[in-house]
Backbone:
């Protein structure tokens, strides 16, 4: 176990109050539509996102895969960032489940413009896949937790309308985007046809994500959830934790953002580390080690009880969350300081 775990915001554990809420949760068989806690969570999620309906699913990956399976046609094309979660971290699921292909687009911190999509749209010709979906991720995990500019999202909506395309929003960290930008989740979601959100990252619930959209979309998504084995029985126990998180853990994300900023500012002072300070907009900090020592540093930090993830010799990611307080940040910075001083 790590004393301070900065590997991901998925490592959070339920708070004592959340555990009590989960213990007392009303439950029923959700496959029969009889779990009151799940129904309450779905209604609350739809309300927060300004959509007609929502569906509780076990994971963010399943949320994205179901959404795209519903709205993609076989052999169609989905435009997304080259840093997108659906491209890099979902085991090629789009080609297997949605039977569509991804067209990746480079961008600044994973953010690309409507013009970038427009110049890649396919002609109406049998030789080409049908341009079907624009997929946006907010915040951009691979872009260091960057928040999309709202006007760029609006431009994507306009382009999609012009060409009869759908927009899917991977909002696994949409809660962070809302707090970091001051723009409500409902506003972000209004530009998308379908939205996925995660409860088990910054909000601190133990399990679960949700999909939101029109009632007809959710009806079809429900079938896909069953098809993929995502229907659960008395899952209100975990849904009640997610519902508690929506109503009690969103505002506190500001604390995580402040702690991430502090980590970035102090670590950027070391010559061997470079931090894209403008990219530290929420709870994720990407470090670039100029001497290719990221993997060595990760292992050395582990020995001191500090959890981090190094993706190669240069890149390391730190993620703040509700289980890392100011004292935890102090401990992490002390460990970095001792290790970097010993090698200088």
Residues:
């Amino acid at each position: 176990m790590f004393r301070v775990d900065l590997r991901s915001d998925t490592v959070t554990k339920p708070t004592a109050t959340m555990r009590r809420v989960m213990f007392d949760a009303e439950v029923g068989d959700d496959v029969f539509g009889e779990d009151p806690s799940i129904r309450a969570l779905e209604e609350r999620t739809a309300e927060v996102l300004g959509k007609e309906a929502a569906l509780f699913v076990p994971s963010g990956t399943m949320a994205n895969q179901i959404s795209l399976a519903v709205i993609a046609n076989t052999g169609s094309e989905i435009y997304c960032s080259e840093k997108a979660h659906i491209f890099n971290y979902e085991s090629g699921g789009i080609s297997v489940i949605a039977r569509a292909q991804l067209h990746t687009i480079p961008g600044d911190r994973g953010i690309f413009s409507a013009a970038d999509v427009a110049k890649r749209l396919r002609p109406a010709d049998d030789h080409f896949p049908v341009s079907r979906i624009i997929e946006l991720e907010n915040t951009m995990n691979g872009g260091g937790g960057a928040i999309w500019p709202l006007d760029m999202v609006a431009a994507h909506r306009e382009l999609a309308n012009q060409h009869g395309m759908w927009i899917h929003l991977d909002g696994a960290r949409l809660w962070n985007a809302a707090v970091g930008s001051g723009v409500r989740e409902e506003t972000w979601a209004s530009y998308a046809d379908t939205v996925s959100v995660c409860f088990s990252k910054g909000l601190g619930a133990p399990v679960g994500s949700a999909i939101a959209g029109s009632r007809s979309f959710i009806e079809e998504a429900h079938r896909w959830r069953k098809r993929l084995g995502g229907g659960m029985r008395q899952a209100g126990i975990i849904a009640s934790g997610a519902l508690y998180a929506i109503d009690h853990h969103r505002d506190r994300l500001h604390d995580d953002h402040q702690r991430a900023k502090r980590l970035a500012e102090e670590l950027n002072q070391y010559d061997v580390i470079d931090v894209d300070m403008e990219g530290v907009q929420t709870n994720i900090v990407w470090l670039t080690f100029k001497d290719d020592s990221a993997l060595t540093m990760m292992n050395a930090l582990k020995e001191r009880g500090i959890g981090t993830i190094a993706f190669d010799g240069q890149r390391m990611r730190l993620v703040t969350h509700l289980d890392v307080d100011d004292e935890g940040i102090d401990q992490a910075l002390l460990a970095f300081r001792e290790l970097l001083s010993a090698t200088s």
Remarks:
- The chain has a mean pLDDT of 96.
- The longest strand covers residues 131-137.
- DSSP finds 14 helices and 13 strands in the chain.
- The radius of gyration is 20 Å.
